[in-house]
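Q: What changes when beta-D-glucopyranose is included in the input?
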Amino acid sequence: MKANKTIKRAVALAMACAATSATADVEVLHWWTSGGEAAALNVLKQDLESKGIGWLDMPVAGGGGEQAMTVLRARVTAGNAPTAVQMLGFDILDWAEQGALANLNDLAAQEGWDEVVPAALQQFAKHDGQWISAPVNVHTTNWVWANKAVLDSVGVSEPKNWNEFVAALEKVKASGKIALAHGGQAWQDATIFDGVALSAGGPAWYKRAIVQLDPAALGGSEMLETFKRMEVLRGYVDENFSGRDWNLASAMVINGEAAFQIMGDWAKGEFLNAGKTPGSDFLCFRVPGSGGSVSFNSDQFAMFKVTGQAAEEQVVMASAVMSPKFQSAFNVVKGSVPARTDVPDTDFDDCGKKGMRELAAAASSGNMVGSMAHGHANPAAVKNAMYDVITAHFNGEYDAATAVQEIVTAVEVAR
Ligand code: BGC
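A: The predicted holo structure follows.
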């Protein structure tokens, strides 16, 4: 009863604010700072504004949200949690475990979230049977983005398997262009690793090794092959790759300076923001060898426990984020796909339609795995342990065989 009243009050608040054009502000902590991300964020800001909710921006750049999570910890420790926070997978569960997140059950029940949010997402949006966040999208990380004109100029078409991919990289390199645009940051190295691991070991092995952390699988021949493939890729990045932001790597493909980028589908947001069209200007395909599988992550808005008007605004924001119309409008721009199964693909471009098809197929075949790089395979301690080994190996500190041993040991220590 009481909760129903809160929802009603929240909606009434939205309407009253809209009517008077007074704005109550939600403070939102997020890491959507690139051009494409900002465009998507604007869809959300405008949607909230139309409901009378103003926006207090708290951007902290850095894919995977590591820096954002550091800022968040400081804010919560100071007793000053933001209203809503962009969060990934195990980080959400971690905060829920600490009792820091608000309970969205009444809104979820009223709007039927249980029926439309896929189980793989509910696993991170619910804790002890309580909805504690609102999923805004599903990204998948095992994608390659390619400049079509560059490929045409060297006579390369979409590679269908790993060997064809390596041959294509080689041809581009021989032409004097950069074959693989990459930014040497731990989370980006790890993002490449998601797709390469799926390609080298397949989804069943990925689940055993990366998600379940079975030491035999972690230290198996598939892991060796994964690191060997990472080494091959390392041979195709330019010498200035170190520290480069992911969106600058995307820009290199967009501008025709480079042929390929391996990156989650937020990269598509950059291509679209630059006015490019899938199919004619750029290609999107799965990391060769990983077709049929997807490594996913879902951006969710976790709501911290607050009281009074801020709590009412949280309900309005969560409801706005979960609306099917919004999920379409937002994800069309963001590069991701909706976090609900009942949103039509009508407004999505060819890459988006393909993404939705492939996600649904992978979900029903059991080949949808949580992205290690983006916090959907393990809690932060294990993720960071993996990051360290992957990055050290990519930078030549270990050979592939040593990296296999190191990842087994690092995970053992971290878990
Ligand atoms: C998030 C995306 C974001 C990307 C790069 C990922 O962790 O899920 O929404 O676009 O990082 O910032």
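Observations recorded in class: The chain has two domains: 2-139+297-363, 140-295+370-414.
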